[in-house]
Design goal:
Blueprint (H helix, E strand, L loop, with lengths): L9 H36 L1 H12 E6 L6 E2 L5 E13 L9 H13 L3 H12 L8 E4 L4 H9 L7 E10 L13 E3 L2 H6 L10 E3 L2 H5 L1 H5 L3 E7 L5 E8 L7 E3 L3 H11 L4 E6 L6 E7 L5 H4 L4 H9 L21 H10 L9 E3 L2 E2 L8 E2 L7 E3 L1 H7 L2 H22 L21 H7 L6 H7 L10 H12 L10 E4 L19 H15 L17 E7 L22 E8 L6 E7 L5 H17 L22
Parallel strand pairs: 2-10
Antiparallel strand pairs: 1-8, 2-3, 3-4, 3-5, 6-7, 8-9, 10-17, 11-12, 11-20, 13-16, 14-15, 18-19, 19-20
């Protein structure tokens, strides 16, 4: 039976098409409405927000680092300035995809024909803490050939450019390395503590010395400029600029000529020299030898160069003036004498018999005088002149550790004495409490005796010895040692002044000073040779500090000791004795003889300061008086 043929329903198909058209039209209308609503939301409701984003993409605020303040010596000789230099800087975010910047570093090393060590140093600098889109200097002091190579290969170096900037420079080299210090790159630890706004664009900070202590004054205030950039970050024009405020200039109390004279007086030996003006506390010279060139640290010292300095047996990086701790030896005896007089334990006429040693009651141990034959009956004047150990053993025993420690603290022993020297060590003035806390032991009488001659646990810096001597020269008036003479024309202010030493009898100062004069000018003075021909009177005191202990009954034999195990030589002095204008403290490592080695150094330094070109006493220091030897 044939199948029926189904006829097509055109009306039904038409309705289906019309329905689909309507649904599609409605969908299109809805989508258009959504698009219009979105556009309205973005362009009208969020107009302020997106216009700000757009503006920020086009306009950037770039910091302008301030010019670091200059540093001069007291005569206007510049000791730290800023030198223009071309540096290679890199912005990591503009180098391409993450990790691309390391490939760019490889290209830089290839183009400039550098070493793998340089490559490692560049990567280390790039990984240090920084702010987004902040250019990082990776290579300093580019020469003309290097600049040309970078320019030719610029298309291979995205995010890299040559920038002109000022770099710290120390024209005096090693002369002021331990006093002025140096600047170096800001590390991650420092970055966390610095003001992120004021240090924007700054890559260096003071690391040691004056550069570190006066960092806020030397740095200045950052400036800004608003710049318009294109899509690649290139600056098209400057829209607004706020100039930075440069750092303050600092004039130091140091004198370059006296500094050079002091270095020459040391003659290449390891040691330290401090020269002070006792009237003001100004540091006139500060030498720690051997020294180093601070310019090596400014733009980044190489691994090899730093290893040589760090591992040197002579320790050139070690500031002996501020951090070197040495037993003061007999240089502390004038301060001990003042303590004995003021406490009433002795008078100027009190005498002690010296057979060449001292013994505590009911003890067999003999505490030796340096003069094994003894000096017989000794009073205060002779004890200082001859540096008689027996007298000061007896004086220390009579005073006791408590009073002795208290008086030495008044002289600055065991505490920081400077006003603006960041690295200074407080040293050590032992006491009963100190020994009980650190050694868990009682204090023994014999330990008090050896403190009386500057041995035992006592540890001092050359600066502390200079200040203790300045207090005697200044009759107890405290003027804290400082390196800065003026900061932008204003003298530094001591916000925590020390208490002056007030004696019951002011004439005690003159009694001790007279004994110190006898050291230099007395017929039996231990350092009289160093004062021969002097046009001014000097008050001084020698000292010898043991490096290794000598057994009971043995004598010091230099031939049995290594050179670095021999005694240190110390000497402190001030002049003119009747009206002191300069105090000098000298320490010569392993120099053995304070009077024979350190005293001539003191004399040379004093002559350089007090005498003119013709070898005559300068008018500002008073009339010349030929120093005569006097009988003890």
């Amino acid at each position: 039976m044939p199948q029926q043929i189904r006829l097509k329903d055109h009306e039904k198909d038409a309705r289906l098409v019309r329905n689909r058209v309507v649904v599609g039209a409605v969908a299109v209308v809805l989508l258009v409405c959504v698009l219009i609503a979105r556009l309205y939301y973005l362009q009208v409701i969020q107009y302020d927000y997106h216009s700000t984003l757009s503006e920020n993409n086009r306009v950037h605020v770039q910091p302008i680092p301030p010019t670091r303040g200059l540093i001069f010596d007291r005569n206007g000789v510049i000791v730290a300035d800023n030198r223009p230099s071309f540096s290679l800087v890199m912005t990591r975010e503009r180098a391409g995809n993450p990790g691309k910047w390391q490939e760019v570093l490889d290209v830089i090393v290839e183009v400039l024909e550098l070493t793998p060590d340089d490559r490692a140093l560049f990567e280390k600098r790039m990984k240090q803490g920084r702010r987004p889109f902040e250019p990082v200097p990776i290579l300093f002091e580019l020469n003309e050939e290097q600049i040309a190579r970078i320019a030719v290969n610029q298309f291979r170096l995205p995010g890299v450019e040559v920038a002109a900037q000022l770099v710290r420079h120390y024209p005096q080299g090693a002369h002021f390395a331990h006093s002025v210090g140096y600047v170096g790159r800001i590390n991650e630890k420092e970055l966390k503590t610095l003001d992120p706004v004021n240090y924007s664009g700054t890559h260096h900070i003071g690391k040691t010395g004056i550069e570190r202590f006066y960092e806020p004054e030397l740095h200045g205030q950052v400036g800004y400029e608003e710049v318009e950039t294109n899509a690649r970050g290139r600056v098209l024009r400057v829209l607004k600029r706020t100039d930075p405020k440069p750092g303050k200039d600092i004039v130091l109390s140091l004198d370059i000529k006296l500094q050079e004279a002091a270095e020459q007086a040391l003659g290449g030996r390891r040691g330290a020299i401090v020269a002070l003006d006792p009237r003001t506390g100004e540091v006139l010279a500060m030498v720690s030898q051997p020294s180093f060139d601070p310019n090596l640290f400014v733009t980044g010292i190489s691994f090899k160069a730093y290893a040589e300095l760090r591992d040197s047996i002579d320790r050139p990086l070690f500031n002996r003036v501020l951090r070197g701790l040495y037993p003061p030896g007999s240089t502390i005896k004038p301060a001990v004498a003042i303590a004995g007089l003021d406490s009433g334990v002795v008078t100027a006429s009190s005498r002690v018999f010296d057979p060449g040693y001292y013994q505590l009651p009911n003890y067999d141990h003999k505490y030796r005088n340096w003069n094994r034959t003894g000096d017989g009956w000794v009073d205060l004047d002779v004890a200082i002149m001859r540096s008689n150990d027996t007298y000061f053993y007896d004086l220390a025993h009579k005073m006791g550790i408590d009073r002795l420690s208290s008086y030495m603290n008044k002289f600055g022993i065991g505490q920081k004495v400077s006003l603006d020297m960041f690295e200074e060590s407080p040293g050590l003035m032992p006491s009963r409490e100190w020994k009980r806390a650190t050694r868990r032991q009682a204090w023994f009488p014999g330990e008090t005796l050896i403190l009386g001659i500057g041995q035992g646990y006592m540890q001092t810096t050359p600066l502390q010895l200079a200040q203790a001597t300045a207090l005697i020269a200044n009759k107890g008036v405290w003027n804290r040692p400082h390196l800065a003479k003026t900061i932008e024309g204003q003298p530094p202010v001591d916000e925590n002044p020390m208490d002056n030493i007030v004696l019951r009898d002011k004439s005690d100062w003159a009694k001790v000073t007279h004994g110190m004069e006898q050291v230099m000018h007395g017929a039996r003075g231990t350092a009289r040779k160093a004062a021969i021909g002097s046009q001014y009177r000097i008050a001084g005191k020698s000292g010898t500090a043991q490096v290794v202990a000598i057994k009971q009954g043995e004598k010091y034999d230099r031939n049995k000791l290594q050179e670095r195990h021999r005694d240190h030589a110390l000497f402190v002095a001030f002049a003119p004795a009747e009206d002191p204008k300069i105090v000098v403290s000298v320490m010569v490592e392993n120099g053995e003889s304070g009077s024979g080695v350190a005293a001539p150094v003191v004399r040379q330094v004093m002559d350089a300061w007090l005498l003119d070109e013709n070898g005559r006493l300068k008018p500002e220091f008073g009339p010349a008086t030929v120093a005569q030897e006097t009988a003890p």
